[in-house]
Structure formats: C-alpha cells, structure tokens
Design a protein that fits this description.
Elements (H helix, E strand, L loop, with lengths): L7 E4 L18 H13 L21 E6 L17 E2 L5 E5 L4 E6 L22 E4 L4 E6 L12 E6 L4 E5 L5 E8 L5 E2 L3 E4 L5 E6 L2 E6 L4 E2 L2 E4 H4 L7 E6 L7 E5 L3 E5 L3 E6 L4 E6 L5 E6 L5 E5 L5 E6 L12 E3 L5 E4 L5 E6 L8 E3 L3 E4 L5 E6 L5 E6 L15 E6 L5
Parallel strand pairs: 1-6, 10-15, 24-28
Antiparallel strand pairs: 2-32, 3-4, 4-5, 5-6, 7-8, 8-9, 9-10, 10-11, 12-13, 13-14, 14-16, 17-18, 18-19, 19-20, 21-22, 22-23, 23-24, 25-26, 26-27, 27-29, 30-31, 31-32
Length: about 425
C-alpha cells in the first residue's frame, strides 16, 4: 500500500453488482497501475525488502513493541468493539483487521521498517487505519487477494463475508466495492457465506455455507459457478463450513473445516474426511504442503496431520489457553519451522518443529511471552521481515465487567536490533 494514502472510511450496506465484468488484475485500473508502477520505480522503498535476512529471534525477553492502535477499538455502549484476528497482505505492506463494530481496517507497515533494520531507540507514531470499510452486519470472514502487490493497484483487494449479505470484493486503495458474489441456495434465495477464501492463483473464490461449498469465477461476479453439496457430493461430512484453504504445492487440493467436527479434503471429488474433537475454527497447510494444521473450538490442543498418510496425526500441539468459543488464530513461519498462537491468557506461545518426532507424540511449547492483559485472538507472522502482528480483545459478559479490556492491534519486532 502506498505510504501516503490518507485515512478513509467507507460506509456501506448490502450492495449488489448485477452485471458481469472482468475484475482480474490484468483488466481493472490498467492506467492507474501503470502510473503507480512509474512512481514505484522512483522510490525503491515502496515495499518491504524481500531480500533482507528474515530471522525471528524468540528469547525470554518480550519482543520490541513498534507501534499500536487502540483508540479505534474503544468500546461503546452498543458495541464492545474488539478485534477478530489479523492478516498480513501477501506483499507484506499492510495488515487487514476485522472488528466487532462491522468494520474492516487496513494498517500500513511504517516505511521505517521496510529496510529490515531496526534500532533499539526507534520511535514510531501510533498506528492509524489507512482505510476503513464498514459492512452491513457482523463480519464472518475475510481474506486478501493472493496476488496482491501494492505496485499494481488493480491487484490490491480483499474479500469479506458478513451476516445477511453476499460476498464483497473491496478495493484496498479506495475502499470502493469492486464486485459482489451472490450464492443461491436450493430454493433460489441469496445466502450469506460463513467462510471465504481465494485459491492460490486468484482465479476462483471458494465460500463455505451450511451443508455446501460454492465456487465463483473471480473475474465474473454474480451467481456461483459450481456448488458442492456435503451430504450428496462428500459423504460423511455435514454442517457449516467454517474455514477453507488450498494446498500451496498441489493446486486444486482444497481442505475445509466444519463446525460438525470434520475436516474434508477435496480435489475434483472427495478424498477423505478427518475427524476432530470439536468444531474446526482454523486450518493451515505447511509451506511444503505435506502437513495440515488444525485448531478447534474450546480446546487447548492443535493437531498436525500427515497428508502423505491421510488420517494420521503427526503430533499434538499443546499448551495454549483457548477454552473459548472465540476463534484463537495461529500463524506459521514462512519456512514452516515455527508455529505461533495467541490465547485467552494474553500470551503468545511459540512451538518449534522437531523433524525427529514420532507419530502421535506431543509438541510442547518452546516459549510463552505475555503481551496483553486481555485475550490475544489473532497473530500473523510477516512473510519477509521478523515482525509479528497481534490483535487483542474479547466479548465480556455482564458479570465480568471489571475485567481488564485491551482491544487493539500491535506490531512487534522479533529480530535483532542495532
């Protein structure tokens, strides 16, 4: 994202775009993309230094706090206004954060961090959202366009799905609605998706519903292209599809989790079903594509599945505090060797992979770092720099009103300092 983008809030209700048009990076905003590329050529610090030495250094000391955003998440009488996870953009220039107040906010990575070198005396201004988009209801899920690159404005977009609305594709520069993807159920009614995810090529959007998966052609907004019914097309799997991911090394292999305690693998047809202890809240493939990590509701345990032997658990990942219905996000380092997760106790937990582990063993925490007095519901590791983003906050019941609130977003430096 351009560092000079001014703060912008876009308010919207449910908008529909009926006509079909090309929203692919090659077709949209071609002229503005050329202009932006010309500007980028003059400024070599337009994106983070991808060639810098990416080295997360986990020590007993708390990571260095770079900057934070808390003012935008102060609770109001009608909204607790906590965050609901965070996601770095594919190019690493900005962070997407959905909130309980129906808004999705984008925070830009400060330009001082692009070089990958940080002084222990560095002082940054508080974070302020460069863009705020207001949806018409509760935000269920959101994701970046996988080819997003700030040098190409046409590729800078993200999708979101909300209560009683179709899937929206938003422009990450202007906040304008680019496209709407409407899923119709068996009685031809528009239905809201519970989960949304682009395939890695960006050509399709997969959406999860109760008892079904709908796929859309990214370049042709409107009605779904294909529908996969769980009971009919994928035996032994039912329920609401809560999360979707495509394998990074095997295109077309899609994993999806349901709140009915099942993970499904699909590629041109059902492959297998993996049973879990509770409703699935998050799944992630390892960078090599040979492992699948899963987290479930009200459980301190995460599992690592061996995709070379479907159904076999490589190891159990124990230690985080996640006995809650709220999603507690985890993140995997770019090399696949480190897994990080938040918890209801305000700590971030770090696990390091052990290549010599025997199937079924338990992977214990390497380190626990206390970062907040409230729930750390989201963590996201930067792809190119040793920077970790965290989002905090949770719903507090009336009998817990005296409990400490800490709704906010923070950037942490987890590498060496000058």
């Amino acid at each position: 994202m351009s560092p000079d983008t001014s703060s912008l809030e876009v308010m919207t209700e449910s908008h529909d775009i009926d006509q079909s048009f090309d929203v692919s990076p090659s077709a949209m905003f071609a002229e503005s993309a050329v202009e932006e590329l010309s500007v980028a050529d003059e400024n070599t610090e337009q994106v983070p230094n991808c060639n810098s030495d990416l080295s997360y250094k986990w020590t007993e000391a708390v990571p260095m706090l770079l900057c934070s955003a808390t003012e935008e998440y102060k609770p109001t009488p009608i909204c607790e206004n906590f965050t609901k996870g965070c996601h770095w953009s594919p190019d690493g220039t900005c962070l997407l954060v959905p909130g309980e107040d129906f808004r999705l906010r984008i925070y830009e990575l400060p330009r001082e961090l692009y070089s990958g070198k940080v002084s222990s005396r560095l002082i940054l201004h508080p974070l302020k959202a460069a863009l705020t988009v207001k949806e018409g209801g509760v935000v269920y899920d959101s994701c970046w366009f996988p080819m997003m690159n700030s040098w190409d404005p046409s590729s800078c977009c993200f999708a979101s799905t909300t209560k009683e609305s179709p899937v929206h594709l938003w422009d990450a520069f202007t906040g304008e609605l680019r496209a709407t993807y409407r899923a119709y159920n068996q009685v031809d009614e528009v239905e809201a998706a519970i989960s949304v995810q682009f395939v890695n090529s960006g050509t399709e959007v997969w959406c999860g519903f109760k008892g079904a998966l709908h796929t859309f052609d990214t370049s042709r907004p409107g009605r779904q292209v294909n529908t996969i019914y769980l009971k009919k097309d994928i035996p032994n799997i039912t329920g609401i599809v809560s999360c979707i991911r495509e394998n990074p090394t095997m295109p077309g292999l899609v994993a999806f989790g349901t709140y009915s305690k099942t993970i499904g693998l699909y590629k041109d047809g059902p492959l297998c079903a993996l049973k879990t202890a509770s409703g699935v809240t998050q799944i992630e493939f390892s960078p090599c594509g040979m492992k699948l990590y899963s987290a479930v509701r009200r459980s301190n345990e995460m599992l690592c599945w061996d995709l070379r032997n479907p159904g076999v658990v490589l190891y159990s990942i124990q230690g985080r505090q996640a006995d809650t219905n709220q999603r507690i996000q985890f993140s995997i380092s770019p090399d696949g060797n480190v897994l990080v997760s938040g918890g209801t106790d305000g700590a971030v937990n770090i696990w390091e992979q052990d290549p010599n582990m025997v199937n079924g063993e338990q992977l214990d925490i390497k380190q626990t770092i206390k970062l907040s007095n409230d729930c750390v519901n989201g963590v996201s590791l930067h792809r190119y720099l040793p920077i970790m983003a965290t989002s905090t906050g949770q719903r507090i019941c009336d009998e817990e009103l005296e409990r400490c609130r800490d709704n906010g977003v923070r950037f942490w430096w987890c590498g060496s300092t000058d």
